Amino acid sequence: MTERTFPPRTPGRREAFWESLDEPQREALREASRPRVYPARTPLCYQGDESDHIIVIEDGWAKVTSMTEDGHAVVLAVRGPGDLICESAVLGDRQRSATVTALSPVRALVVPARRFTAFLDAHPEAWRLVSGTFVARLDDADRRLQAHVSAKGARRLALLLAQLAELSARHVPAAPDGGIEIAPPLSQEELGSWMDASRETVARALAHLRERGLVRTGWRRIVVVDVEGLRAFAQERESD
């Protein structure tokens, strides 16, 4: 994996934690951390474990899942370059609320909880960025709930793909025709878990979105052709 160069800051765009730090803050956090590479499908932290460290993703993608009472893993979110994960360590003695698993090889900085809180004490302005991360996670949960209430099937998938396209555009250059490839390598089963639908429902929804010219698909590859078109489609009324 090559060194990650983050895109220029864009007004109004939510930045990942690492992007929001200045260079002295990044250097201080590097000194407090140890680098680690996680192969694809390797857990970075486990639901229920004690929170004794945080992780900053430098490169690669991971999924956040939570285990239900009947033993079913539900995809809650994806995290990518610059994101702070396993952040519950900041809150003190607390068990992890979810499992984070590498979707692709992940290069990361692992910071013990005590060193991270010492970093925050030495750089008080960074506390605001951590708080912003917590707020963003709550906002994401609210959007997930709203999508479940307001849409289903292809429309719910359209909302999810539009969000993933906007996230991916920060890290993957658009195709010559303006298409945006979804960067996190999510399977149809994982997309279905995220939107509370079966793999078959996702496959039918993707076929419908292809027919409307909104996406192109391949093996574990989805290219969003029209982000605004996806959002407009998601807002259409369900037919009787």
UniProtKB/TrEMBL annotation:
<protein>
    <submittedName>
        <fullName>CRP-like cAMP-binding protein</fullName>
    </submittedName>
</protein>
<dbReference type="GO" id="GO:0003677">
    <property type="term" value="F:DNA binding"/>
</dbReference>
<dbReference type="Pfam" id="PF00027">
    <property type="entry name" value="cNMP_binding"/>
</dbReference>
<keyword id="KW-0805">Transcription regulation</keyword>
<feature type="domain" description="Cyclic nucleotide-binding">
    <location>
        <begin position="17"/>
        <end position="137"/>
    </location>
</feature>
<keyword id="KW-0804">Transcription</keyword>
<dbReference type="InterPro" id="IPR036388">
    <property type="entry name" value="WH-like_DNA-bd_sf"/>
</dbReference>
<dbReference type="InterPro" id="IPR050397">
    <property type="entry name" value="Env_Response_Regulators"/>
</dbReference>
<dbReference type="Pfam" id="PF13545">
    <property type="entry name" value="HTH_Crp_2"/>
</dbReference>
<dbReference type="InterPro" id="IPR012318">
    <property type="entry name" value="HTH_CRP"/>
</dbReference>
<keyword id="KW-0238">DNA-binding</keyword>
<dbReference type="GO" id="GO:0005829">
    <property type="term" value="C:cytosol"/>
</dbReference>
<dbReference type="InterPro" id="IPR036390">
    <property type="entry name" value="WH_DNA-bd_sf"/>
</dbReference>
<dbReference type="InterPro" id="IPR014710">
    <property type="entry name" value="RmlC-like_jellyroll"/>
</dbReference>
<dbReference type="InterPro" id="IPR000595">
    <property type="entry name" value="cNMP-bd_dom"/>
</dbReference>
<dbReference type="GO" id="GO:0003700">
    <property type="term" value="F:DNA-binding transcription factor activity"/>
</dbReference>
<feature type="domain" description="HTH crp-type">
    <location>
        <begin position="152"/>
        <end position="228"/>
    </location>
</feature>
<dbReference type="InterPro" id="IPR018490">
    <property type="entry name" value="cNMP-bd_dom_sf"/>
</dbReference>
